[in-house]
Design brief:
By secondary structure, the chain is of the alpha+beta class. Helices cover about 30% and strands about 25% of the residues. Strand 4 and strand 5 form a beta hairpin. The two termini are about 50 Å apart.
């Protein structure tokens, strides 16, 4: 009964709120109503927890919150785990050799012509986090000539960093020798020195985490990114690289595991992660068949503003 009386009292106060002309009194009443609602929510949450503990295994399943991600528009290209067609494609696609460890990834990193310091610093950090990566000065060479050189030297991938007004804003990723080529918009870049409490990098091969690359396009993109890194990570280095896709934005993070040891008990009691950096966000603009060719190249997918018909429509 007291709970119902509190609710009815709260309803009366809420109804009276717009009738109060004095701003200070209205603000004080609003704060009182907000505090009462928060208290009611907390008590209800505690009650549900106690009820679940009492019921044990017989407790009803938790309700899944509705989000934009789990209410996305239906997509015929969603990849189902164990799909025979997808598995068959994986054995014959452009990245199969990388995953079968037939060849070690060798990556060339370069920039736009006449790069500023921001592009050089980002290139240096990419070189440090990707095993087998090497930075080369652009020196005015056309990208097609660089691709030809990389094929001769048996590089497996090229990254081209683009910038505008001394700010990195794009990344071109070309897989060799036969493509594909991905064009990304790059935003929210933070180098490791700009990250609070960052730690130093090591030369160990990292573990790789790919999240939410669920469509055929996303699956291709995920394999393309994974092919940049060696197939066999060195777990003793405790390095982890994450590509997390959320609403078609790909968030890049670089961490290491840290185990806090309780010296009294002489055992590992707590695990946490510490960011190494850099961090940035990628947004796919286009995926092209074959190597870089903006004039005659055939595109598998190109983002257009006319495609953004709904907040719940995603492509990766």
């Amino acid at each position: 009964m007291s709970h119902h009386r509190e609710i009815s009292s709260l309803d009366r106060k809420t109804a009276a709120l717009p009738l109060i002309k004095n701003k200070q009194k209205r603000g004080a009443l609003y704060a009182e109503i907000s505090a009462a609602k928060n208290k009611a929510r907390t008590e209800e949450r505690k009650r549900r927890v106690k009820e679940r503990e009492a019921l044990g295994e017989k407790a009803p399943p938790k309700k899944v919150a509705r989000t934009i991600e789990n209410t996305r528009e239906a997509d015929d290209t969603m990849v189902v785990p164990g799909d025979e067609e997808v598995l068959a494609d994986e054995h014959t696609d452009e990245f199969a050799g990388c995953f079968e460890a037939k060849k070690e990834p060798r990556i060339l990193i370069t920039t736009n012509v006449k790069p500023h310091m921001s592009a050089r610093k980002f290139a240096s950090e990419l070189e440090g986090i990707i095993p087998g990566a090497k930075f080369y000065e652009r020196k005015g060479y056309e990208l097609k000539k660089i691709i030809g050189y990389c094929k001769e030297k048996e590089f497996t991938d090229i990254f081209v960093i683009n910038e505008d007004r001394d700010k990195v804003n794009g990344l071109v990723h070309c897989h060799l020798p036969d493509g594909p080529t991905a064009f990304y918009k790059l935003t929210n870049l933070k180098l490791n020195k700009e990250i609070v409490n960052h730690t130093k990098n090591s030369k160990h091969r990292p573990e790789l985490i790919l999240n939410n690359f669920n469509t055929r396009l996303g699956h291709t993109l995920g394999r393309m990114l994974a092919a940049v890194f060696p197939a066999a990570p060195q777990f003793e280095g405790r390095r982890v690289i994450t590509f997390h896709n959320q609403r078609d934005f790909i968030f890049f993070r670089h961490h290491r595991y840290v185990f806090d040891i309780n010296r009294k008990k002489e055992e590992k009691t707590k695990a946490r992660i510490q960011e190494i950096g850099p961090r940035f966000t990628l947004k796919l603009r286009a995926l092209q068949h074959g190597t870089f060719d903006t004039k005659t190249g055939e595109y598998e997918w190109v983002h257009k503003t006319s495609m953004d018909t709904s907040r719940r429509r995603f492509f990766l």
